[in-house]
Design a protein that fits this description.
With about 325 residues, the chain is of the alpha/beta class. The chain has a single domain, classed as TIM Barrel, CATH 3.20.20.70. The protein has 11 helices and 12 strands. The strands form 2 sheets. Strands 1, 2, 3, 4, 5, 8, 9, 10, 11 and 12 form a 10-stranded mixed beta sheet that branches. The chain has a two-stranded antiparallel sheet with strand order 6-7. β2 and β3 form a beta hairpin. It is globular and about 75 Å long. The two termini are about 40 Å apart. It catalyses: 2 5-aminolevulinate = porphobilinogen + 2 H2O + H(+). Belongs to the ALAD family. It comes from Deinococcus xinjiangensis. It is an enzyme of class 4 (lyase). Pfam families: ALAD.
């Protein structure tokens, strides 16, 4: 039987050169953001639930930042782990806080690297929540409006330390407007706000809570982070509010279970769109690779390419250093 199709798509997949020439989606180191944990200790500390990820000392976070820059990664995002935690997360906005010192140290050595500061309180509070804790009708939750002032103080202190971008992640109503107003009033109108606009109350954050010691001691985050089954309307509403309040970037977190939401925001808004390939997504691939179930390199690059194809302009990923190295290979 003779097969005579009018088109043969396989023709354009025949060689590596043809496949490269016809690709629509490009993934490069320039699309990656390297997340780093920084603690007060003088030595690095491994994170057992996140193989090859550590809590950096101040000295090693600078070395890691230099490595990222040398690999073509344009930005890092910092998460601080203080020695002292209290009810209001005061080390988040202290002039001598661990993130503030890390920002100064990195900018002194790698001035052209973009340093993003995660603007939240959960790593700094004794109760592990993202702000001022209160009890409502027998349930513990974050008191929204008092928390806004603490977030504004944190953002300004990060900008004063030299952060290029502040990234509020607590999902408080009005956080972008409050932070934008505080930055402008303090003379930092040039500092962008990267909003965690659509952030879900996800099981995929488990290893991060281990790394940062930020698991809630009572209650949960379901009253302020989004419901996985909330649907598209809630995602659009949250993102639209942040745009109206002056966000410069939008973010969807996590990534893998929400690729449809990334595409939704990409089609709806013209701001730069970031997604966070979170700790649990990273740990799943690492575990499968260590057991010999999956090819780590191919899996990671395919996953990150999928996030780009969905519409992400930038990807925060714990795979960043490895991915940048692999992308340099023939």
């Amino acid at each position: 039987m003779t097969f005579t199709p009018s088109s043969r798509p396989r023709r354009l997949r025949r060689t590596p050169a043809l496949r490269a020439m016809t690709r629509e989606t490009v993934l490069s180191a320039a699309h990656l953001i390297h997340p780093m944990f920084v603690h007060e200790e003088s030595a690095d500390s491994p994170i057992h639930s996140m193989p090859n990820v550590v809590r950096h000392s101040l000295q090693s976070c600078v070395l890691a930042a230099k490595e990222a820059w040398a690999l073509g990664i344009p930005a890092v995002i910092l998460f601080g782990i203080p020695d002292h935690k209290d009810e209001v997360g005061s080390q988040a906005y202290a002039e001598s806080g661990i993130v503030q010192r890390a920002i100064r140290a990195i900018k002194a050595e790698v001035p052209d690297l973009t340093v993003i500061a995660d603007t939240c309180l959960c790593e700094y509070t004794s109760h592990g929540h993202c702000g001022h804790l209160c009890e409502v009708a027998g349930h513990w939750t974050v008191d929204n409006d008092p928390t806004l002032e603490l977030l504004a103080q944190t953002a300004v202190s990060q900008a004063q330390a030299g952060a290029d971008i502040v990234a509020p992640s607590s999902m408080m109503d009005g956080q972008v407007a409050t932070i934008r107003g505080a930055l402008d009033a303090a003379g930092f109108s040039h500092i962008p706000v990267m909003s965690y606009a659509v952030k879900y109350a996800s099981a995929y954050y488990g290893p991060f809570r281990d790394a940062a010691g930020s698991a809630p001691s009572r209650g949960d985050r379901a009253s302020y982070q989004m419901d996985a089954a909330g649907g598209y309307r809630e995602a659009l509403r949250e993102a639209r509010l942040d745009v109206q309040e002056g966000a410069d970037f939008l973010m969807v977190k996590p990534a893998l279970a929400y690729l449809d939401v990334i595409r939704l925001l990409r089609d709806e808004f013209d701001l730069p769109l970031v997604t966070y390939n979170v700790s649990g997504e990273y740990a799943l691939v690492k575990a499968a690779a260590q057991l010999g179930f999956m090819d780590e390199k191919r899996t990671v690059l395919e996953t990150l390419t999928g996030m780009r194809r969905a519409g992400a302009d930038a990807i925060i990923t714990y795979h960043a250093l490895d991915a940048a190295r692999w992308l340099r290979e023939p």
